[in-house]
Amino acid sequence: MNQKQLWDDLAKKNSKYYINSDYGKGITEGEFRESGRQDYIKYILKDDLVSFNGTFLEIGCGTGRMTEFISGIYRKVIGIDISGEMIKQAKERINPLINIEFKETDGSTIPLKDNTVDIAFSYLVFQHFKERSMVEKNFEEVYRVLKPGGIFKVRIRSDKVDLDRWWGGVEYTEQSIGQLIKKIGYKLLKTEPVGDYGFWIWLKK
Q1: Torsion angle in degrees (nearest 10) through CA of 71, 15, 197, 133
Q2: Alpha helices in the chain (DSSP H)
Q3: What pairs with residue 203 in β-bridges?
Q4: How confident is the model at residue 167, as a pLDDT?
Q5: Could you read off the pLDDT of 131-190 as tens digits, one per residue?
Q6: Domain boundaries along the sequence of the chain
Q7: Half-sphere exposure (Cβ direction) of 36: Cα atoms closer than 13 Å
Q8: Which residues are within 8 A (CB) of 94 and not within 5 positions of it... i.e. 6 or more apart?
Q9: Which residues pair with 153 in a beta bridge?
Q10: What's phi and psi for 195, nearest 5 deg?
Q11: Can you count the helices (H) and strands (E) in the chain?
């Protein structure tokens, strides 16, 4: 399945819903923006392991649901997404915020120089990756662009689901993702389960 085309198509249909389906297909801009603010507070602002300075990389930024709030505490925020349509809409939504840069990617490589990012973060993104090679390449790329001592916080899927569904993605156990972490060279700081369908991990370069 062409994941770039999939997410371009979903973005054109109803980007707000496919980014955050909790409110249903009738989600308003106000509900969408508030959900981004609440998630920013919960997963970034209140996280003692995520420092509030320097350059922040958001992987799978969509239309900037969380990005605009992240920009309030970081010198620079770079939002990347596999969908050019998502990036286009993100620029239209929050273009006036000058410390944000949006970039379309191929979904596997990150168009940044080595050792340039202080924090890398990804929330409802890796759970949709349909190929393990894509997950693993992203982990390698994040390690490359992080500065020494930089932090990568990411949520991973742990339940096995139908990959043909738009929301489906490959699953990992803490053991299997641990093998990848060790292979690349990360230091594992913390893991935290999310129900019976996922877990957060905090990594340090």
Answers
A1: -80
A2: 3-19, 29-40, 67-70, 84-94, 132-145, 174-184
A3: 152, 188
A4: 85
A5: 999 999 999 999 999 999 999 999 999 999 998 888 889 999 999 999 999 999 999 999
A6: 3-204
A7: 24
A8: 64, 67, 68, 100
A9: 121, 202
A10: 55, -140
A11: 6, 7
- In angstroms, what CA-CA distances link 64 with 27, 135, 142? 15, 21, 20
Average pLDDT, the chain: 95
Q: What is the three-class DSSP state of 52?
A: coil
Q: What is the mean pLDDT of residues 59-71?
A: 96
Rounded to whole angstroms, the maximal C-alpha distance in the chain is 44
The answer to whether the predicted template modeling score (pTM) of the entire model surpasses 0.70 is: yes
Rounded Cα distance between 177 and 38, Å, is 28
Contact 81, 57 (CB under 8 A): no
Phi/psi at 15 (nearest 5 deg)? -60, -40
Rounded CA separation 67/56 (Å): 10
Give the chain's end-to-end CA distance (angstroms, integer): 32
Separation CA 73–CA 53 (nearest Å) = 7
What is the architecture, at CATH level 2, of domain 3-204?
A: 3-Layer(aba) Sandwich (3.40)
Residue 158 in tokens: 């742990």
Distance CA 60, CA 15 (A): 13
